[in-house]
Amino acid sequence: MKFSLRGIIGLVLVLAMALMVMSGCSQKDDIVKGTESTTITLRPNNLPVLQDIYIYELWAAKIDGGDSAFVSLGRFVWDRELFIFRDTLGQAITNEYTLPETWLYYTNIYISIENRGVASPTPSGTFVLATSVGPVNDINPTFNMEFPTSMSSAIGAWFVGTPTDDTMNIFNEDKGIWLGTRPLTQRFLHDTLDIDSIDQFILALDTPYTASDSASWLLRDTIWAQFPITEVDTVQVVFGLDTLPHRHINVNWIDTLDSFNNYQLIVHYDIDSISSDPSEPRGLIEFYDYQPSLSGLPDVRPFGWRYNVWVLGEYFPSAANLSQMVPFAYDLPGLNTGDTTFQVISLGAFYHADSADLSNPYISNREVPNFPGEDFISGALPIDFDDSLTFVYGGDDSTGGIWGSLVIGLEPDPANLTIDSTRNFPLFFLSGQLSGPGQETDKFFHNWSQFLPKVTLTVKFGE
After folding, report:
1. Could you tell me the pTM of the whole model?
2. CB proximity list for 440: less than 8 A, separation 6 or greater
3. Which residues make Cβ contacts (< 8 Å) with residue 231, sequence separation at least 6?
4. 3-class secondary-structure state, position 334
5. Which residues fall within 8 angstroms of residue 420, CB to CB, at 6 or more apart?
6. Cβ atoms 347, 357 nearer than 8 A
7. Given a cut of 70, is residue 63 above it in pLDDT?
8. Are 421 and 309 in contact (CB under 8 A)?
């Protein structure tokens, strides 16, 4: 067989191209084969230890528009001291999980909170960590699993006070905490009634007087008609959410004997000393202007959560037999929330930062500020919440300066999971320290959201 030089060169080129193609296929062979068998490894950071009623569960999911399919990869509890996963019996288990389908089949990986007991084929709907997954170029790619929405923009303030109580009562201001501000505000108060005329009558000594037409002398002040008045007697006018005594006109009927031994009837009016000039009946008053303070809180209901406010304290009444706090998983902010032996009181769960919380059983009346908080002052208080309950402690403490704190955190929505209303759930993102007497004014929270739990997920493709 004869070979021409041109044919030999062509054959060499064909062989070279074939080798290049084969070499290119072998470079991607790990990833192509790996999508058929995939193992994921979880490495937690700041993952809290759950109460005994809960357990973590790992899910792989395919989300396609409104359709979703979940498969459970396993359930576990977290041993923070030894940094290992355990089952419900306390036995150590692996932190590696094998996907039942190819890697490219899934769109998301979740870790949910579940009730302990019989497992369900679908998640509870309360997701603590999540990440999106998809095509990768690395041999062993990693993904960061984080809380499903960001809390980094959350800010707010709080104060110690009892806004639902009588504003004149200053002796129980240490028994309430509210997530808002109440700057002392000044304004001029105009009376809501005006005098149309002053008439004088000369009556005989034996003539009785009836004030049948006195109503025509009292007119509504059209400038301040937004404060409706229905009677001349003392009334209450509501400014915002704070009730103030209304400055009113006192109409007094005075019988004075004149030089002719007849009665002279004179109408006198008084503006309760708010103005020395009767022709300008107004005065400068001061009152608290209650305003919401929390902002930057996302809607967490789609992920199965709600917010709650917990007060953690060292010196709450011992007779109240309050539960001890559930420890948080964050070392640094934990130094600012108190010792794990502190007791816990809930101020109330809420979904929105600009509205009242879901329950206010211990307030004095129905005038509740439109933001979360609680006054512990009504007759509905448990018998063990006696007068020693205070959020302003003036003595020494045993924790180096921290005797109590206020935290805003997350708890599972009771529509999804069982909750323990007597204790805090171990996730929080805002906190502030309780203080001593004279420090009840507006105080600002510190944002610790950078310490919320995270999990590094490492992918390993099989042969």
Report:
1. 0.74
2. 159, 160, 161, 173, 174, 392
3. none
4. helix
5. 51, 53, 323
6. yes
7. yes
8. no
